[in-house]
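re: ur question from yesterday

yeah so i grabbed the chain u mentioned. its 658 aa long if i counted rite. heres the sequnce exactly as i have it in my notes:
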Amino acid sequence: MANETDTLVKPDMVAVLERTHVSKDLHGFLLPTLEAVSNAMHGIEARFPDTARDDGKVEISIENINDPTRIMISVTDNGVGLDDENYTWFKTPFSGHKLKQNGRGFGRFIAFKVFNRVLYSSRYDSFPKAAKRTFRFDIKRENELIFHDGEPDFEHLGLRVDYDEPLPEWSELVAGLDRNDIADHIGSHFLPHFLYKWLPEITLRFDGGEPESITSHFKDVFVQSESGTFDCVIDGKSEAIEYSLTKVPRTRSFKNHCLLFAAGDRIVGHPRDLTNLLGQSAFPDENNQAYIVIAVVRSAAFETRLNDARTGINISPATIEEIVGKVGSVIQSAENEQINKIKRAQSKELQAALQENPILRIGLKGRSISEYVAGKPNNWKAQDFVSNLAIERYRASRDLTKAITIAANNPEDYMSRIKEIVDKIDENNKEALAEYVVHRKKVIELIEAARKYGVSGTHAPEDTIHDLVFKRFSDNVESDYFEHNLWLIDDALAFLPYISSDRAMHGKGRKKGDKIPDLAFFDESLVLGDNDGTTITIVEFKRPSRDDYRFGDIKHDPVMQVLKTLDDATAAGGIARTDGTHFAFSGVVRRFGYIIADIKPSLAKVLSLHDFKNDWNPSIYVRYRDNEEIFIQAMGYDTLIANAKKRNQAFFSVLFGE
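ran it thru and got these structure tokens back, copy pasting raw so excuse formatting
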């Protein structure tokens, strides 16, 4: 047996460890345990070279699992133990012996990134009888191996490693440890062994309970579904990359498709999430149960590039992305049915988006939706397609402009190009018109919704609908054609040169006694060659279902309100714009008025007393007043909506089949 003055033949491991990064997650915490299990398998294979799978035993025991001050993790095996030869290698980090076993001899030092105390105890063959070796391992001491005479807690040949006293930074993680997560993580770490190597019987027990077999649990879960090889250039040399695929049920630990890199017959580093590449985090099976695809890649090139801490492989990010892409292609081919489902769903979602934004069809550049979707990432949603198509539409428009310029500058080629150019222009105009028609349909639906009862049980006030038609307290200095919906009343109103909404004639705040027209339109027009002719159109909105109108009462008679607004407008001779300029008019020759209100009995009576008629259309009351020279129409919201629909019906029929 070695004496108490034995030291390791090593570089300054404290300094090396300070430069070694271990992630502060479950994988980082379990890294010493995983290294101990890996070393145990080497000892088992040495003792049972032909029967290691059947005769090998590894027991992982975790006591006081969620107590950061008392937790202890033990890994016990029935391998050859720490005999004299292995003990010599133990004292020689980065040994050739470990390299032959796909190791580095550095794993035992990783324990000090997690724990303060590490104990070794072993029984091994030694002529003429079995011997023991027990000691504490502490790299912070001058004599790192502190031997004692205690007996190992097992009778068979083998080795046990005890880890306890976690460093303070692990306390929060220890307090939240989950038994199932630990089992899943240990099983997935040795996934390569399930797929293409052997595993001894590995059991896991918590707080002295019954041991559960990790090997038995995962051997039916981690089953290779497909394997193969592809080439990848690493550091200028073509290397063979072997891949294996397995499908496992989705759990909290196995929650998304991923790619794992294997070296030294274990998983190295963190999984690469394949969710974005495959379009979904998991796929449904025939019973609608979620499963994930795990890919494991390995290569001789990985072994020579494995870092000393075995926490990563030293290859470039670009190479990793190339490997991820090739593995993704393999999985998409293997899961062709699932990918087709995603593409069909994307096509359906894009079809709906294009109904709302038909002008974006220009970006398809003649491709069908399915053809376009097939060439885009599986994780794209409608907004991604819309953004891309907007860019493609811009490029298509720019290309069209270039084509027109080229044709214009080359008369000899113009005739051969003109048909193609005209076809493109025609298509662009169709899509632009379609988008505007979709907009109109949505506005009509919104107006219909605004007429219904609100959550308070009352009807929406008139200003709700007013704002939908034209924003209140503004004018068209601030709002252009596509920012209002005056076409709901009359398409011609949308193009008048000046519109003022809920503003006094003096353009400032409302003064006492001011009657503010809901909408007032002023149109400088040419009438019989007279350049001074002016049209004024006044629109009054009333609350839906209102029924308190009274004849001759300025507050309750909308006809009187229209006439009062007309008097004020003509007397003022103009109106102040929001930009400070003055819109002047003189000699008004055309005057129109609209009253938009549900035709309730009290309003019908007021209109009748004002001598309005509805002979030609029962839904619309009309009157031309000779004294004021104004033509006034009164209609209900239902008529407003119905007429707007009729004016757009031909387009609605083509686009929506209505």
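noticed a couple things. The radius of gyration is 41 Å. also The first strand starts at residue 57 and ends at 63.
anyway ttyl
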